[in-house]
Amino acid sequence: MENANNYDAGDIAANKGLAGISYINPIFIIIALLASPNSRYLRFHLNQALLLSLYMLACALITIIPVLGWIAGGIGIIAGIVFMIMGMVSGFNGTEKELPIIGSYRIIH
Fold first, then answer.
1. Phi, psi angles (nearest 5°) of residue 43
2. CA gap 67, 38 in Å, rounded
3. Distance set, CA 22 to CA 57, 96, 98, 104 (Å)
């Protein structure tokens, strides 16, 4: 889904910086949620960032398994870094684009 027409232009302009940095670290998700809890645009990106954080945690846990876990976890982490860059670009550009594979789930509504 790549459509920012669902959001107010002022909402996007005011929150696209927070949306972009929320992908860097889970702490930024909390900070952004506290800074602008009513922004629909920001909440979309916070949901995507939270899903990405959980995905990266799962990949890190997989690396505990010797050999195959190292390979699978490593590939997953590389994919997660690509997803992070995609999310940051989408957030900073003011667009709504779900992350591949994990982006269709909703935790933050």
1. -65, -35
2. 45
3. 16, 14, 14, 18
Max CA pair span of the chain: 50
| Alpha-carbon distance values, 16 to 6, 74, 79, 92 (Å) | 15, 30, 23, 5
Q: How many CB atoms lie within 10 A of CB 47?
A: 20
Side-chain half-sphere CA neighbours of 67 within 13 A: 0
Chain segment 21-75, per-residue pLDDT in tens: 999 999 999 999 999 999 999 999 999 999 999 999 999 999 999 999 999 999 9
